[in-house]
Structures are given as C-alpha cells and as structure tokens.
Known about the structure:
Blueprint: H1 7-11, H2 16-31, E1 35-41, E2 46-49, H3 51-57, H4 61-64, H5 75-79, H6 82-93, E3 95-103, E4 109-120, E5 126-135, H7 137-159, E6 163-169, E7 174-177, H8 179-185, H9 189-192, H10 203-207, H11 210-221, E8 223-231, E9 237-248, E10 254-263, H12 265-298, H13 300-315, H14 320-349, E11 358-361, H15 362-372, H16 374-380, E12 383-386, E13 391-394, H17 396-412, E14 419-428, E15 443-450, H18 483-493, E16 497-503, E17 507-515
Parallel strand pairs: 12-14
Antiparallel strand pairs: 1-2, 1-5, 3-4, 4-5, 6-7, 6-10, 8-9, 9-10, 11-13, 14-15, 15-17, 16-17
Helix pairs in contact: 13-14, 15-17, 17-18
Amino acid sequence: MPTIYSPEKVKHSNNTGTRDENELYHRMIEEIEDYAIILLDRNGYIQNWNKGAEKIKQYAEEDILGKHFSIFYLQEDIDNNLPQKLIGQAAETGRAVQEGWRKRKDGSRFWGSITITAIHDEEGNVIGFSKITRDLTDKKQAEDELKMSEERYHKMIAEVQDYAIILLDENGYIQNWNAGAEKIKGYTSEEIAGKRFTIFYTPEDRQRNLPDILLQTAREQGRAIHEGWRVRKDGSRFWGSITITALHSHNNVIIGFSKVTRDLTEKKMAEEQLLSYTTELEIQNRELEQFAYVASHDLQEPLRKIQTFTELIETNYEDREFVQRYFKKLDASAKRMGALVKSLLNYSRLNKDKADTGIVDLNILLAEAKQDFELLIEEKNAAITAVTLPAVKGNHIQLGQLFSNLISNALKFCEHTPLIEITCQQVKQDEIPGAPAGLMAKAYYRFDFKDNGIGFEQQYEKKIFSLFQRLHNKHHYAGTGIGLALCKKIVENHHGHIMATGEPGKGAVFSVFLPVEPAPPL
C-alpha cells in the first residue's frame, strides 16, 4: 500500500533531514496508545494503523489494512449511511466531529469520540483523511449514570404527592411543579408555570408583603421557614408549612429558589380542636369552682335561715303572731333558695341546649324582650332605642335570654328614668378589645347596650360576669347574681365575646361580639 503524506511532507520529501523528521513523526503516531489514529484514502479505506487503534479496536494492522472504516460502525449507523456522511462532511468542510457507539473486533461496543480531517495535496485536492478516535466509554457510562440518577431524582420529586415541591426563578416566578403541588394547590403544571408564587397567599399576607419578605430572608440567610393559611385554586384555604431555600450557581450567585410546602390543615384543625377542648375544660373547671362556692355559701344562707326560723317556730309555736311572722320569713327564704336552684339549673342547661340553631332575627328578639318588660318599662317610663339589627346564626332561646338579661339589668340598676340605647357595627377580629384566643371568624357584629344606670367601677368588670358575684346590695336591687354569668355563657356558646365598661353614677355599656359569618356548630 502506498503511503499518503500531508502536503508539507510531499514538498520537502527530497530533504534528508526532513525525511528523518517524517520518520520520527510516523513513529510517534504509531506508538500512541490512548488514541486510535488511522489513515484513510479518499474513499475511506484504511491505509495506516497505530498501536492505539489496535488497543481500542482490537484489530492487528495486518487484519485491518485495506478494509473500509465502516467496519467499526453499528449496523443501524451503516444503514443510515453515517460513515459516508462523515467523510463527505470532512471533504466539504475540512473535518467532521461525532460521538457514538462503535464496534470492536470481538463485537463489544465502546463510546468513541471521533474527528475526521481531510488531507489535501498541493493543489488542494482531497487525497485522504486522518481519523482520530478516543475511547470515552468510562466517561459516557459515568454521564449516563449521572443522567439516570438525575432523572430518577427528578421523577421522584415529580411523583411525590405529600409535598408540593416548586422551583422558582430568582424573582419568585414558578419554573417547575410536581404532582404534590398539583394535589395540594389544585393547579396543573400548564396552568401555573410562569406565574408568581404570591398567587398562593391570602390577600392579607400579600398586603403585608409576606411572600417577598420570605424570599428576602432566604436570600440573606439561605432559607426561610413559615406556617400560615394558603389559598388553593378553588379559593379554599389550607394550613401550609413552607421552606424556601436559595439555590446558588458555582460562583455563589442566587439563581432561584426551591419551595417545599406541606399541607398541615388536619394537624392545625386538631390543634385548634384540642385548644378548644382545653379552653372548654378550663371554663368548666372554673364553673365547678363557682358551683362549689354557691353550694358552700349562697345556698347555705337561706338554708341556715330556714333551720333557724324552724327552731324559733318550734319553741314559740303557741305565739300565733310570732309564728305567722316567721312563717313569712321562712317562705321568703325557701323562695330565695328555690330561685337560686332554678338559676343554677338554667345556667347548667346552657351546655346541653346547643343543638337547636338557625338564623335568628335580632329585631324579633328585641321586640319580644320589650313585650316581656312592658309593665316595668311603663312603670319606670323607660325609653329603649335601637338601630335595625342584623340576623345571626344561633339558638333563639339563648339569644333571647341574652337580650332579656341585658335589658333587665339596664332597667333594674337605674335610680331615675332608664334610657337604653342599642347600636350595632361590624368590626374585624383584631379590633375586639381583649379578644380571647378561640375567636375564629374574620368579622364580628358589635352590639353595644348603653344605659344611664348606676354604673360600676371598671376594676370589677371580670367579677360581674361570675356566678353570684354582686356589686350591689341584694336587698336594694333584686336578683340572684347569675344574669351576667348567663350572658357570658350564652355569648361563648355562640363563639363570641362580651365585655363591659362603666363609671359609677354615669351608666354602663355592655358590648357583645357575635360572628358575621356562619359560626361553627354550637
């Protein structure tokens, strides 16, 4: 087989020094083992072969010279005419570069990176090709394993359903979306891609710029953690626990964020239910303490009088006038005790009378209360004014007792002409003074029952809502001391709040807060 030289070698072939250099050059090529360096004629037949080619492709030089270089290609590549396309490209553009599976003598495969370069004569005509092949099988396998690992990782992320895993760009726009995000938030990947992640936040959180505050925290500290109410596609809310983590490039520049969200609504509701049960238990424990106080004090007083009067009657039964006088006192004490027991029964029954609820028109309740106190209103020449009141969800009987007790107190604890004014306005939850933790509604009706009665010292506000806690002499003002305790219990049953403000001699205002939206079951 004739040897093919490059144009430079052809031009200096008569020079002895150059001939030696060419020989050295060919020896260098032949000795290289990490690269298969092959000389092809212009039709692709093998003219020369080095040790690297023998090592990589497994053919001895005498076995391969004169064969077409397509012998190294897979059948599908031959069917696609890939070998001819490559030397055609090299002939036209000077070289062709390609990576792909190649075949060894024993039929095994290796991943080859090849460069075919056209060789020209002095006139620029293509007289052959050099073909350099490097075995990159280990690198290819490592890349394939890495790619497979990444694919498995991405598939794992995509298939996770208990967590919403979202990829954000550096400005918070959604780039990627997994099955868990679709399940929890309700959007498909096509619907949400490209939108900003603020879409999941409540109007209140967006107004106080919470999403951007969380992103900034992640930028500065590496990650941000938060729990709060989030919004689904259908407008419903869920309690989300989120972690936003900053993603950095190799030179530590933030290129985006990962956002992982878990739906903890059931846990949140369970915690709130537990808190509600705990609060209810604390209330009932306080009530038990009050009942114990009643049993040991308030009920004992009329009972002692009955025992004393009975003993006096027994020792003076012959004195008719004396007996008659103490029989009246005995009867008054018995009635007093009966009223106390009845009040206690009414109070305890509030815990059992919670099921019968509906929409209650408070204007009707007010009219019923006015009718009940018609004689007392006329007797005291009292005036009751009220704005048009809304309807609320609740128990008609209990809310009737609430209105009745508040109006009764305003009429009773007044030493001149009673003036009672009832107003109503809508307020937000955070506008309720001293609101307890258990209030759940967003908005409440505030009902103010304002009177011009005897009032009270503000320091006693809590005391007046306790069982049988009276600020005034029971002989001067009638009652059992349970009316305001009943009011407090009724308002709590309706998931509301009651408070009072007063000033001695100038009257009092009793403020009742009831949910605007339908409250949870009583």
